[in-house]
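Illustration: Fibulin-5.
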Amino acid sequence: DINECETRNFTCTLQQTCFNIPGEYKCLDPVRCEEPYIQINENRCMCPAENVGCRDQPFTILYRVMDMVSGRSVPSDIFQMQATTRYPGAYYIFQIKSGNEGREFYMR
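Result:
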């Protein structure tokens, strides 16, 4: 595989991110936060506590893009997320929001 993103042989715009995949590449659009969230950096959205529309919403949403190499033995742990007790009384919800239509992934 030639990594077009490293060789700068791609047609993504300045706002997009080049993401290498075997045999080609994809241009990923920047994260756009949906109301009532506001964008606080390139991959994080925050719902301000003073906004009444945020009352029953998660405080922050963090977007991550991961490449997974084929040929992995399964089942296999791909990554680990861990909740912290930084905010007393907070609770955490982890879920796969999209891309799991075939139910290939699960959380434990």
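Reading the tokens back as a structure: The longest helix spans residues 4-7.
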